[in-house]
Write a structure and sequence with these properties.
This protein has 2 domains: 222 residues, 3-Layer(aba) Sandwich (Rossmann fold), CATH 3.40.50.720; 91 residues, UDP-galactose 4-epimerase, domain 1. Helix 1 packs across helix 9, helix 6 packs parallel to helix 7 and helix 10 crosses helix 12. It has 12 helices and 13 strands. Helix 1 links the parallel strand 1 and strand 2. 39% of the residues lie in helices and 16% in strands. The radius of gyration is 20 Å and the shape is globular. The strands form 4 sheets. A 7-stranded parallel sheet has the order 3-2-1-4-5-6-11, sandwiched between helices. It is an alpha/beta fold and 341 residues long.
């Protein structure tokens, strides 16, 4: 039986991944988390408690802050693992602009510490580093970035994620660790932090408030993203974990570390997204287009990733993003404690 170590296990994406692993595998799971602003054990409780007792006991929680090395006691608590999925990260763009060193410590130093632990796992099958679309920077109209395109970080958050990514590449090149890198963008789903855009839209539309739609400087073109549900991200991760490892060879430049874009089924602008949420509630959308990006450096109007590589391998989201958004809206209205602020 395999054991997977998931860093940031009480975080938003990671708790969906834990639920997916419990449902579709017999793996044991170790959740490593410091339980701060982003980590919430109530998420894990909601997911894990829905399984029978014999399944729930496969989850173990270990408390640790990755800014510090994994000491012998923490390493002993973890034990031997077969997979490491590194999701723990600081991810708040505004906070990274105000406190960049916090993000260097969390996303670069923290990544180095978990990679050092990975070196001690002599039978490690795979280490997956979760990166972000933001390492590529804003995408002009018609451009979708492929996995190995150049980076252009526009804020300290994305720069530190790129730094952690390059450390992961270096540890594969230097120490031969089996590492994959994934890029995801604008993940949403049940139990997302209430400060995020979709939970905000759900709450404001429910309460009849106006929704702020970030746009270009003319206040006519809304920002756009390829939104993707966290369950689809989890499904893609398990797909990659089970995919034959001997199928990869260095690219034309000699780069060995495989990278994968995990992308939603459709690009939506933020006005379209808010309209879908309003329709799911049977309410009229009140909104205002605001030029947020020109006045706030570090925030970009459009991000876009090319998901063709994963499609060619045989993976794509099982449901349309519009269907997923409606499902999340209805679920959230039935579980309103998750949008209380």
């Amino acid at each position: 039986m395999n054991t997977v170590l998931i860093t940031g296990g009480a975080g938003f994406i990671a708790h969906h991944l834990i639920g997916k692993i419990l449902k579709e595998t017999d793996w044991n799971i170790i959740s490593l988390d410091r339980l701060d602003y982003s980590g919430n054990l109530n998420r894990l409780h909601d997911v894990v408690s829905s399984f029978p007792a014999d399944v729930r006991k496969r989850v173990k929680i270990v408390h640790h802050d990755l800014k510090a090395d994994l000491n012998p006691l923490v390493r002993s608590e973890i034990g031997k693992v077969d997979y490491i999925f590194h999701l723990a990260a600081g991810s708040h763009v505004d906070r990274s602009i105000e406190y960049p060193m916090e993000f260097v410590l969390d996303n670069v130093v923290g990544t180095c510490n978990i990679l050092e632990f990975a070196k001690t796992q002599k039978e490690l099958k795979l280490f997956i580093y979760f990166s972000t679309d933001e390492v590529f920077g804003p995408a002009p109209g018609g451009i979708k970035y492929k996995e190995n395109d150049r980076y252009n970080s526009t804020n300290p958050y994305s720069a530190t994620k790129a730094g952690g990514e390059e450390l992961a590449v270096a540890y594969q090149n230097t120490y031969g660790l089996p590492i994959y890198i994934t890029h995801t963008m604008n993940v949403f789903g049940e139990r997302q932090h209430p400060e995020k855009y979709i939970p905000i839209c759900i709450r404001k539309i429910k309460d009849g408030e106006s929704v702020t739609i970030h746009s270009d400087k003319t206040c006519t073109i809304p920002g756009s993203r390829h939104y993707i549900h966290a369950e689809d991200v989890a499904d893609a991760v398990l797909f990659l974990a089970k995919y034959p490892k001997n199928n990869w060879s260095p690219d034309e430049t000699g780069a060995k570390c495989p990278k994968f874009n995990i992308v939603g089924s459709e690009e939506l602008n933020n006005l379209e997204l808010a309209q879908i949420i309003a329709e799911a509630q049977g309410k009229e959308l009140n909104y205002e287009l605001v030029d947020f990006h020109s006045s706030r450096p570090g925030h970009d109007l459009r991000y876009a990733l090319d998901g063709s590589k994963m499609k060619e391998l045989g993976w794509e989201p099982k449901k349309s993003v519009r269907e997923r958004i409606k499902e999340v809206t209805i679920w959230t209205l039935e579980n309103q404690r998750w949008i209380m602020i």
